[in-house]
Amino acid sequence: MTALLQIRDLRMEGRRPSGEWMPIVRGVSLEARRGEVLALIGESGAGKSTIALSSLAYARPGCRFTGGEVVFDGASVLDLSLEEKRGMRGRRVAYIAQSAAAAFNVAHTLGDQITEGPSVHATMSRGEAEAQMADLARRMRLPEPDRIGRKYPHQVSGGQLQRLLAVMAMSCGPDLLVFDEPTTAIDVTTQVEVLAAFKDVIRQSGAAALYVTHDLAVVAQMADRVIVLYGGEIMEQGDTDQILHAPQHEYTKQLMAAVRPPPRASSPGADLESGRQPPVLSLQGISAGYGGVKGGKPDVQILFDVDVEIPRGQAVGVIGESGCGKSTMARVISGLTPAFEGEVGLDGKTLPPDVKHRDKKDLQRVQLVLQMPDVSFNPKKLVAQALGRPLEFYLGMKGAERDRRVGELLNMVELPADYAGRYPHELSGGEKQRVNLARALAAEPEVILCDEVTSALDTVVGAAIIKLLESLQERLDTAFVFISHDLSTVASFANRIVVLYAGRVAEQGPTPRVLSPPHHPYTRLLLNSVPEMRTGWLEDHRATREAEQAMADVVNIGLTGCPFHTRCPLMIPGTCDVEKPPVHRLTQGHRIACHREIDALANPPSPVSDDK
Amino acid sequence: MNQAADTATAAPAKRRFQFPPLGVYGYVCVLILVFWIVVALFAPYIAPYTESEIVTGTSFAPIGAEGLLLGSDYLGRDLASRLVHGARTTLTLALIATILAFLLGVITGFIAGIAGGWTDSVISRIVDAFISFPTIMLALLIVSIFGTSLPALICAIGFIEATRVFRISRALAVNTMTQDFVEVARARGESLWWILWNEVLPNAFVPLSTDFGLRYTFSILLLSALSFLGLGVQPPEADWGSMVKDNMTGIFVGAAAVLLPALSIFSVTLSINFLVDWNLARAQKDISDELVK
Questions:
Q1: Which residues make up the CATH 3.40.50.300 domain(s) of chain A?
Q2: Fewer CB near the terminus (10 Å): N or C of chain B?
Q3: Which CATH class, in words, describes the domain spanning A5-258?
Q4: pLDDT at position B192 over 90
C-alpha cells in the first residue's frame, strides 16, 4: 500500500529580517500512512511545524518552497492552484494549532465556526454538520455535546477549546490530521484528557496523523513512528519504542538526556535542615485579589488565607494549574498586588503590603523575575542599561565600577561580557531569560521570585536555565521561589514544594515528603498526570478512578468547603463541600489541608499506575 | 521562533547609518519642505517688498506683469512678498500651536494613563467633552471669546489639537505601563517620574513623533481655515489662509493670487503627510520584522 502522504527531498527557505533567504528545511523525505501517527520532534527552529504545514501545501509568511515535492494521495500538491489547494485544505488535510484560544474567533459561536468547514466545502448540509459536530464532541468527551455549539469560545475551558479545535478539524472527515503542539499550552491534568480524546478519534477515523511536539513523554503516548529533526534535517527515524529507548543518533541521545526526570523524591537528606532554618520570608494568612475593594474584599479574590515560609538560601517550588494564584503570590510578595489580609514578613519584620510604602533596603532584598523574556526588557535600552539600573539604584554604583559589575553579572549567568552592548531583540529567548536573572542578581537579593521562568522556552533551553539556577543557588546564599505549572521542573530543583489549588495551599513540605505518600488528593492527581516515557501509560492512567473524577474539568473557586471537592476521589459528602479542611501538620513542616485522616491519604484509593 | 537563526542574527557588530530609502516622491517632498523652511526663515531678506506695501495700481496683475514676479493681489500688493511673509506666519504659528498641543496633551495624557483611576476618568471625560465638538466650531467659539490676537489664536489651536494628542499619549502610556519591564521597575521601587522618563517616553517616541507631523499639518489647515473665515490672522499681516480669503474675487479671473496660497498650503501638508506615512510604514516594518524573527 502506498503512503497517503509522501514528502520527497523537501527544501524550504526562510527570510531573515535583513532580507536574505536561508535554508530552514534541507532535503527532508518522509511518509505517513493511514491509521498511523507520525511524530515530528526536535527543538524549536528544527523545522517541525514548517514541514508539517507543507503537507497542506502551505508556507508561512517569510518562508518559501525551493525544492522537492509533497505528494498527497497520489497527487503533487505544491503546484496546485490556490483554488485547488483551498479545496484540499480543511477537507482532506486538517490542521490543529497550538493555541486554541487564538484559533477561534471570539465573536462567533463555536457551532458556527465548527460547521463552517463542511459548509464551505459543501460536503454536507448545516443540519448534518451540526449532528456530526455533536457526535464528534461526544467522542471527544466534551460536556453537553448537543449544546456546546451554541457557546462562545470564552465560555469553555482551555482544554475543552483544544478538543473543540480537533472537532473542527475533524468536521470534514479529513484523511490527514496535522497536530502542531496541541497540548503545549495546557495544564498537565487537562493534557491527559485531550491526548486521550485525540488518540480515540485518530484510531476511529483511520486517518493518518502528523504530530508535532517537543515533549517526548507525549510522543510515547501518541506516536507509532518518530522522526527526529534538527536544523531542518532528519537526524533519525524509527519506531517510537526504538527512538525512546534505544536511540542511535548522537542528537537523539542528547534529546533523551535533556528530558526531565519524572517527579520522584531524590535526596531525602538535604531537607532535614530546612525545618530548623529560620525563614527569610514568610506569608501569614495572605488573602489577595484584583478589582475594586468592597466590604474589605476585592471583586475577584485569588488567594485565600495562604501561609508559606521560605527558608533562607533554599529553593521553594510553587506549583499549581493556571489560574490557581501562583503568580499572584509572587506579586503579593513583591508588593505589586497588595494583599488585603495577612502579612508578608521579611526576616521577622512585617513589610507594608504595597510596594510604594516599602523602603529601598527591603525592596533590594526581594527581586522578581518574570515569565516572558520578550517583554521583560525595555526594547529601547541596552543590556548594560537594564543591568546597570539596579546597581545604581540599590548599590549606588557608577561609571567604571558599574560597567565592571555588569560584566561580572553577565558572566555569572554564563553569557559573554560584551553582551552588555546589545539590545534585547538581539538576544535569543534563553539569553534574554539569563539577562533577566542577572538583573535580579544585580541587587544582591536574599530572595529571588522566579515566575514561570522556563515556560516560554524550549525544553533544552529551559533545562539549561534550571541548571544555571541550581548552580547559582549552590554558590549564593539566596532563596529562590520557583513558580511553575510543571511538577517535573519544580521537583528537580526545589528543596520544598508548595502545592496551590484555587488560591489555597493544598499541601506543602520538603520535596521528598510531598512527592511520596501521604499526599493531598490533588498532589496525587498532579503526580499521576505527568506522562511517563513509556507507551501504554495513557491507557493505564485512564483506567484509574481518579482520572474519571478529575474529568470534572471545572475548577471551583467557591468560598465554602475544600475547593478540590468536585474533582476529589476521596470526597466526603456533607463535609468537604461545606467545611474548610483542617491542616494536618506532619514533621519537617509537611502540611496537608484535607478532611481525610493521614492514613487514608497514605494509601491510594484505587490501583494507580504509580510504578512501572 | 527560530533559535538557530536567533543566535546567528544576534548583534551586527557595527550600527551603520543608512540613508533612508525615500524614493523619488520622498525626496521631492523633502525638497519642498526645505524650500519653505528656508523661505520662512529668511522672509525679510527674500521678499522684495513688505507685506503691506501697495506697489501697483493694478488688481490681480498676472504673473510677471509690471516687474512683479508673481503678479499682484486685489489691493495691488506684491504677491511674491506676501507669499513669503505668509509662509513665515503660517508655518511658525502652526508650529508653536503644535508644540503647545504636545506639551499639554502628552503631559496630561501620560498623567492620566499612568495614574489611572479617578484622575484618568476625570481628565478623560473632560477631553471627551471637547472632542465631541467639531474642531472648527470649537475654534470659532474660543476665538470669539478671547479675540483674534495671535496668542489667542495659538492657544485655541494648541488646545484643540492637545485633546487629540491626549488620546494617543494616554493610550501609549496605558500600553507601556502594562508591560513586564514596567512591572519590574515598579517592583524595584522606581518612582513614577523615573518610569515615565525612562520606560514610557523612549517607547512612545516613534508614535508621538509621527503624530507630531500629522498634528502640524492639521494645525496649518485649522489656522488657514480660521483665517479664511476672517477669524485668524488679521490684515494687513499676510498668512496663506487669509490670502485665499482676501483674493476670493480673483478666482473668476483665474488669478494667481488666490491659487498660489492655496497651492502652498497643499504642498506643505501633502509633503509632511507623505513623510509621516513613510516613517510609519518603516516603523511598522521594523515591528513586523521583529515578529517574523
A1: 5-258, 272-516
A2: N
A3: alpha beta
A4: no
CB-facing half-sphere around the CA of B255: CA atoms within 13 A: 26
Q: Is residue B1 part of a domain?
A: no
**Is residue B128 over pLDDT 90?**
yes
Query: Is B3 among the domain residues?
Result: no
**Which residues of chain B does A363 touch, with a Cβ-Cβ cutoff of 8 Å?**
187-189
DSSP state of A44: T
Q: Does B252 contact A at CB distance below 8 Å?
A: no
Q: Which three cell numbers stand for residue A466?
A: 534550571
**Diameter over CA atoms, chain B:** 79
Give mean pLDDT in consecutive 10-residue pieces for chain A, a chain of 612 residues. 84 79 88 89 81 87 86 86 85 84 84 86 82 85 82 79 86 88 76 82 85 85 90 88 86 77 52 61 88 75 88 89 84 89 88 88 90 83 91 89 92 89 85 91 91 77 84 86 84 88 89 86 84 79 63 57 80 81 84 84 55 36
DSSP-assigned letters across all residues of A111-156: HHHHTHHHHHTTSS-HHHHHHHHHHHHHHTT-SSTTTGGGS-GGGS
**Crossing angle of helices A188-205 and A158-170, rounded to 10°:** 10
**What span, in angstroms and rounded, lies between the C-alpha atoms of A386 and A522?**
40
DSSP codes joined into one string, A68-110: EEEEETTEE-TTS-HHHHHHHBTTTEEEE-S-HHHHS-TTS-H
For the CA atoms of chain A, what is the radius of gyration?
26
Q: Which grid coordinates are listed for B55? A: 506697489
All residues of chain B having their beta carbon less than 8 Å from the beta carbon of residue A14 are 2, 5
- Are the C-beta atoms of A369 and A386 separated by less than 8 Å? no
Q: Write down how long chain B is.
A: 293
Phi, psi dihedrals of residue A586, rounded to the nearest 5°:
-100, -175
SS3 A537: helix
Bridge partner residues of B54 (DSSP) = B77
Contact A154, A188 (CB under 8 A): no
Show which of residues 189-248 on chain A sit within 8 Å of chain B, judged by CB atoms.
231
Query: Residue B285 sits in which domain range?
Result: 24-53+63-292
Instruction: Report the candidate in A22, A15, A95, A84 with the shortest Cα–Cα distance to residue A54.
Output: A95
For residue B3, give the nearest of A44, A378, A381 by CB distance. Answer: A44
Residues of A (433-452) whose Cβ lies below 8 Å from B: 439, 443
Place of cell 505518600: A517
Q: How far is B191 from chain A (nearest CA, A)?
A: 9
CATH number of A272-516, picked from 2.40.30.10, 1.10.10.60, 1.20.1560.10, 3.40.50.300: 3.40.50.300
Mean pLDDT of B19-34: 84
Domain containing residue B247: CATH number: 1.10.3720.10
User: For residues B233 and B245, is the Cβ–Cβ distance under 8 A?
Assistant: no
Q: What is the H or E stretch that residue B101 is in? A: helix B79-115
Structural domain count, chain B: 1
Report ipTM (2 d.p.).
0.72
Amino acid at site B131: I
The secondary structure of residue B77, as a DSSP letter, is B
CA distances to A524, B100, B137, B167, B226 from B160, rounded to whole Å, are: 64, 10, 11, 12, 13
B18 falls within a domain: no
Mutation pick from A15, A378, A387 vs chain B, by most beta carbons of B within 10 Å, is: A378
Distance between CA atoms of residues A308 and A455, nearest Å: 23
Cα–Cα distance between A508 and A498 in angstroms, integer?
4
C-alpha distances in angstroms, A240 versus A36, A221, A260, A534, A536? 12, 9, 18, 9, 12
Say whether B9 and A431 touch across the interface (CB within 8 A): no
For residue B202, the chain A residues in CB contact (below 8 A) are 378, 380-381
